[in-house]
Amino acid sequence: MFxxxxxxxxxxxxxxxxxxxxxxxxxxxxxxxIRIGLQNxxxxxxxxxxxxxxxxxxxLGNAGILPNIDGRASRTxxxxxxxxxxxxxxxxxxxxxxxxxxxxxxxLNWVIFDGLGMFINLERLKTLEKSGELFTKQTVENxxxxxxxxxxxxxxxxxxxxxxxxxxxxxxxxxxxxxxQYEVGVSAKVEILRAxxxxxxDRSELLLQEEVLQNAKINLNQLLGRNPxxxxxxxxxxxxxxxxxxxxxxxxxxxANPLLQRLQLERQLAHLDIRSxxxxxxxxxxxxxxxxxxxxxxxxxxxxxxxxxxxxGYNYGLSLNVPIFNGFNLNRQAQNARINxxxxxxxxxxxxxxxxxxxxxxxxxxxxxxxxxxxxxxxVKLAQENAEIALERYRLGILTAIELREAQRNELVASxxxxxxxxxxxxxxxxxxxxSSTLLQENQQ
Length: 445
Known about the structure:
By secondary structure, this protein is α+β, with helices and mostly antiparallel strands. Helices cover 65% and strands 17% of the residues. The strands form two sheets. Strands 2-3-5-6 form a four-stranded antiparallel sheet, with no helix packed on it. Strands 1-4 form a two-stranded parallel ribbon.
């Protein structure tokens, strides 16, 4: 009963292997794809370097807590010619009088009080460091979600090729049957031609589907940060996790979503801006100290000029800078800081609302596709059985070619519909886990 179909499938498989490319195909698992992506993806690498910068910025010196110490040194040489004329006495002429000057010193400036602004700056730098870590985490989670979705997109398109190959097997068997019936005189040549037309149409559909599959592979290679021409075959099929809990996902969204956590830090930064403006209203006390040394040696141009001069010493003290009036700029800055705080709070609320809506939509699609999945799995079995029976009835001459073609197309449509629903259910599952920040946890286990 199934000899035609089995033979046709074997022939199609042989034809597809002829170029020799499949023999060298990489076998790529989902775990391998994620590992390659985490190592090579450009977005992750860029985010990691930005995080490193934010970590490097967390220093006492960058916050303004440590003193500034500057050193200076100089040495100069000069040669002078002098001519002096007097009302009485002879003129004085001096040529080639040389001098040698050396000076050096060290200056220290240390802000010891600025209304606690330096400590606010340090807290700001630490907050920005946390924000950088969360941005990296968000980038990694989004990239992993994209890699998983792209990986299963390749699996989906590969499954559709298999479905088309099954349809081609029926077309191949139908053409052989039509040829055999024509040779024994029980069928007209038009049946052979019609069978060949349908077979060519199926082959054309297969070629188009192979292009779709190739583009899906290119997209995945791009996410993995590697050569888009690398050919591979995915080894993991689409299996939907049917245990995702909405309440748990909603709780994780509030507690662990990196975007919401970053926006909470943005609100903290707005609070720090308000405190920073307040700190500028306080006086600034700066400790200052210096040590200076200078020495000069010169050939005197007259008897009143010293041949050697040297000075050295140190000084220290405090300076006080009190802000009295700066054109109401501090008031303006304080108002803007409060507005920024309100804006940060609104942005947090907006994103919470948007993410909750995204979660609700994803869960609605998830539950709907799970119901459809069970229905379509049953429907595919029926369509396959119907196509097999139709092919056998056509071989026996009790079913028309049109009826066989309809059964064949129904099987293909049912298979593609099941494949699409599997992918949609998996996509909804991935989105739920991405929003609830559990995607990395599961793939690290």
